[in-house]
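SEQUENCE AND FOLD
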Amino acid sequence: MLSLKLTTVALLTSFVFGGAMPMACRSNSRDNKNTISTSNDATGDLKVIAEGSISPIKTSFVGVFRDAETYAALRAQASNLPELKADFFKSNVLIAAFLGERNTGGYGIAIVQQPSGKIRITEKAPPKDAIVNQMITSPFKLVSLPTNGTPPVELSLDERFNQRAQLYRVNNGSFSVSGGFAGRTEQYKLAGKLQVMRLAGVISVGFAMVSEGASRERSLRDFATGVASGDSVAISRLSRGSLVDSPSGELTVHAQFAEKNRLLIDLTTGPVMVPDGYSGKGTIEAQMVAASAN
């Protein structure tokens, strides 16, 4: 009888801890070995590149990376991230999310591509009765999205990520387009908002802008990350949206954080090697209306 009781206790113990602990061990193994993840936690065309529960980046942040130089600026702050060569960014865009510090294990990040194409990024919290590691964690996740050219990337962030973002309203914006067979020129105004997320070395900007006074509605809805130097930011690749007719080069961005919570942005298209191509350039002056919450 005593032998039967001991066997039952052993089986129950194996059942209770067998369901919780291996997950934590797999996560820690990825963190310690800095290996590329093989997780299937992705939807649509998204592919998980790496994830883990410990990152040197201790604040919540989201970045969209389209070139190796900008990604290198991120890796300078988190050396446990995998190295990605320039060829990777010729056919992929990288989305990186950092949750910031949490008081226990069991937390993670979900990155899901919705039917509309928008990418939803949310915090995954452990169930209230879950057995988790009693340690401070800082979860992160990197996914790739295959691309052809520079299509826009629209993100939808939950409160955990939005609480550190800064919202800017466009007070004054203008854009001009020229080119085509007829060599026509069009000028129009820009209105909308910008969402800014700061991290030492890199800054992300979400654009949600529409035209005013154009011959047809034009818009730019994209999220991009650039290299920061003091109060200046350079984004080397940004979708042109429908601001410029096709064929046209992608946009580059030079931004400056000015006094009185202002953000000044210059937009310029790159060169197009066709005789009937279009080019465009514009300026944006935006005012902060909501500061981040620390």
About this structure: Helices lie at 2-18, 21-33, 68-75, 88-91, 159-162. Residues 2-18 form the longest helix (17 residues). The chain has two domains: 2-155, 166-290. Residues 1-40 have pLDDT under 50 and may be disordered.
